[in-house]
Amino acid sequence: MSFTVYLSGEIHTDWRDAIQRGAEQAGLDVDFTSAVTDHDASDAAGDHLGGEESGFWRDHKSSKVNAIRTRTLIEQADLVVVRFGDKYKQWNAAFDAGFCAALGTPYVTLHSEEIVHPLKEVDAAAMAWTTTTDQVVEILTYVTRS
User: Are 107 and 82 in contact (CB under 8 A)?
Assistant: First the structure.
């Protein structure tokens, strides 16, 4: 079974690569998609639409341009993995999880036990909560089984 998996969330660690390597090593037929993970490029996504004096409007334009990609790829995904790191607040990842819930797109969360409480609603709507990339690969192995 072929699966498309959207990888959402923090961009400061190699968790995406770890999941992709694990899926490849397991011989899974999985296509991975993701948001633009170059932070500077993402922040500047709307800059070509004209300069802004206010950071709010710059961010507003860039978030809309970024949403073209993220919404399209989430809508096309069979599963979304939403990663929350411990260092930064990933409001965009929480938004992606809510978008998945509204669409009925299954998602799993990936985060440490230390942030279970602030993510209780996000985790409640998830199909699974994982703490390691290996657990994500195990889920992918199971759900793509023939």
Answer: yes
Distances in Å between the Cα of 101 and the Cα atoms of 27, 42, 75 are 29, 24, 11
Q: What is the largest CA-CA distance in the chain?
A: 55
Tell whether the torsion through CA atoms of 7, 102, 71 and 63 is positive or negative: negative
10-14, 125-129, 132-136: which has the minimum mean pLDDT? Answer: 10-14
**pLDDT for position 20:** 98
Any idea what DSSP says for residue 131?
S
Select from 5, 3, 13 the least CA-distant residue to 112. Answer: 13
Tokens of 63: 């978030």
Nearest in space to 84 (alpha carbons), one of 111, 106, 108: 111
Q: How far apart are CA 11 and CA 59, in angstroms?
A: 18
**DSSP codes, 28-81:** --EEEEE----HHHHHTTTGGG---SSHHHHHHHHHHHHHHHHHHHHHH-SEEE
Sign of CA dihedral 138, 141, 143, 145: negative
Q: What is the pLDDT of residue 110?
A: 98
